[in-house]
Design goal:
This protein has 2 domains: 1-34, no CATH class; 49-147. Helices cover 56% and strands 0% of the residues. It contains 4 helices and no strands.
Length: 149
């Protein structure tokens, strides 16, 4: 006869399984596969470097836009605020996506906005270092996000 819990053979007269200690009840039963706990492998965490760099670039772009509002340049202010918000929102969507190939336009927006911010900081604005840094971080972070880093 076989133990109902571990599935091992047990002598006919035993009241308890000598292997696992389960009480033997009734007639012989077919062997049952032993109960083995399966542990799922730890979920692989997504790298956050590209996401963090994109977020920092988006926040710096947003804060630069607010700064330009304060100093009296409303066009640069509006563009900075809009670009900053778009960079953060699109970077979050890109980071949350399970498959980067299926994100569509959201994967490209932070990258292109980062380049626009870099170009604007070198041509239209008087070489604003904060805006240049924001554009650079956004471009590098977006590339990292798209590459899965």
């Amino acid at each position: 006869m076989y133990c109902w819990k571990c599935g091992r053979a047990v002598d006919e007269g035993n009241a308890f399984c000598p292997h696992c200690g389960a009480q033997i009840v009734g007639s012989p039963v077919a062997p049952v596969a032993p109960q083995v706990e399966k542990y799922a492998p730890a979920a692989k965490k997504k790298p956050r470097i590209g996401f963090a760099l994109s977020l920092i670039g988006g926040v710096l772009t947003f804060l630069s836009g607010v700064g330009y509002f304060i100093v009296g340049n409303p066009v640069a202010g509006v563009l900075g605020v809009i670009f900053g918000i778009l960079i953060v929102v699109c970077s979050r969507r890109l980071y949350a996506a399970t498959d980067v190939r299926k994100v569509g336009i959201f994967g490209a927006i932070p990258f292109f906005l980062g380049w626009v911010v870099l170009i604007v900081s070198g041509t239209v604005l008087p070489f604003d270092l904060v805006v240049s840094l924001a554009g650079f971080l956004t471009v590098v972070g977006s590339v990292g996000l798209l590459a899965g880093r």
